[in-house]
């Protein structure tokens, strides 16, 4: 869910977010995004605000998880809020859009319609990333036999990516995982994290492009159809394991492209506005 708050008068409370995102008693959603001016975001420090303004962002993605907690970033959310900003007339439909987030300024470039990614495609410059020791964590799912090895990636928010169906894994195939249940990561990471489970489907050495399938359990909301930062974290781990830097990754919400370099990662995918809702 997304909405425009030009005046800064409609910062949501945690209770309001939980109510709106509740799939039984509210509207239902993985989270709530307020598009507003950076100086209207009350939790930003002076340094964060200065960095966002210095990065040229006139608008800010104030993202909240479904449980009401603050989120640093949402890669898919950046595309949705940019399409919404275009519709509301605060973003140009043909020019790159500089969007402030709690993980810095992200630049979104409209790409139009692109196969196989869909319509209203944007490429997001997701910025710097950090990866930990490969396969340093054991990942299990309570109630499910087996485990997999996971790798920590910092995308501005924390991720642990487990490549399953390889020599280290004894979990079921990706499609059969129970991701309603929150995965357990050991040793414990100081902050809660998103956990991605991925399978390599194909690598074309002639083009340098790989294909993979991913599912994700996101902190604060459980399993989601897609996770933009999780897709980027997955591409980074797959590059570390295979040497391939370009990946078409299929999630339950569709197929997206991840391109990894030493200093940046780009995420390419579609955005769709599905409904207008009036709250009275």
UniProtKB/TrEMBL annotation:
Highest taxon in the source lineage: Bacteria
TM segment ranges: none
GO cellular component, one term: cytosol
Keyword annotations from UniProtKB, A to Z: Amino-acid biosynthesis, Isomerase, Lysine biosynthesis
Family per record: Belongs to the diaminopimelate epimerase family.
Organism this protein belongs to: Bifidobacterium longum (strain NCC 2705)
NCBIfam families cross-referenced by the UniProt entry: DapF
Record Pfam families: DAP_epimerase
Gene label: dapF
Name of the protein described by the UniProt record: Diaminopimelate epimerase
PANTHER family noted in UniProt: DIAMINOPIMELATE EPIMERASE, DIAMINOPIMELATE EPIMERASE, CHLOROPLASTIC
Family matches, as InterPro entries: DAP_epimerase_AS, DAP_epimerase_DapF
Positions of the catalytic residues: 74
Pathway: Amino-acid biosynthesis; L-lysine biosynthesis via DAP pathway; DL-2,6-diaminopimelate from LL-2,6-diaminopimelate: step 1/1
Lineage: Bacteria, Bacillati, Actinomycetota, Actinomycetes, Bifidobacteriales
GO molecular function, one term: diaminopimelate epimerase activity
């Amino acid at each position: 869910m997304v909405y425009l708050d030009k005046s800064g008068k409609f910062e949501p409370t945690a209770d309001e977010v939980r109510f709106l995102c509740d799939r039984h008693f509210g509207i239902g959603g993985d989270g709530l995004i307020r598009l507003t001016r950076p100086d209207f975001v009350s939790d930003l420090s002076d340094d964060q605000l200065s960095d966002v303004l210095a990065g040229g962002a006139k608008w800010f993605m104030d993202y909240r998880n479904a449980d009401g907690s603050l989120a640093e970033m949402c890669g898919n959310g950046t595309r949705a809020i940019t399409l919404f900003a275009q519709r509301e007339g605060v973003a140009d439909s043909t020019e790159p859009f500089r969007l402030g987030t709690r993980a810095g300024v992200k630049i979104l470039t409209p790409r139009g319609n692109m196969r196989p990614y869909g319509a209203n495609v944007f490429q997001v410059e997701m910025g710097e990333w950090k990866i930990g020791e490969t396969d340093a964590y054991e990942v299990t799912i309570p109630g499910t036999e087996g485990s997999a090895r996971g790798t920590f990636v910092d995308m501005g928010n924390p991720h642990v990516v487990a490549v399953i169906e390889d020599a280290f894994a004894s979990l079921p195939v990706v499609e059969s995982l129970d991701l309603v249940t929150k995965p357990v990561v050991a040793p414990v990471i100081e902050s809660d994290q998103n956990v991605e489970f991925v399978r390599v489907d194909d690598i074309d050495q002639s083009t340098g492009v790989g294909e993979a399938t991913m599912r994700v359990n996101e902190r604060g909301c459980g399993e989601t159809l897609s996770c933009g930062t999780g897709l980027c974290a997955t591409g980074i781990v797959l590059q570390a394991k295979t040497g391939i830097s370009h990946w078409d990754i299929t999630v339950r919400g569709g197929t997206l492209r991840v391109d990894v370099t030493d200093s940046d990662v780009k995420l390419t995918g579609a955005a769709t506005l599905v409904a207008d809702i009036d709250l009275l």
